[in-house]
Write a structure and sequence with these properties.
Blueprint lengths: L15 H19 L8 H16 L4
Helix pairs in contact: 1-2
Length: 62
């Protein structure tokens, strides 16, 4: 028998999701600018590049 996943209530005020999206868009732009364009030839390659850059530069800061 598997347990239901833990879900927490979203406690953000109405402005926070928009602010968060702005920051995520900026992070995405930075990661894209740092990606090697010759490696971004397939969806799989894009995903691997984004994952590697995120793990190296973003996740340690969270």
């Amino acid at each position: 028998m598997s347990e239901a996943p833990l879900t927490l209530p979203l406690l953000m005020d109405s402005q926070k999701p928009a602010q968060l999206q702005q920051h995520l868009d900026a992070i995405a732009a930075i990661l894209y600018s740092e990606a090697n364009p010759t490696e971004l030839t397939t969806l799989e390659a894009n995903e691997k590049s984004v994952r590697a850059l995120t793990q190296e530069h973003v996740l340690p800061q969270l």
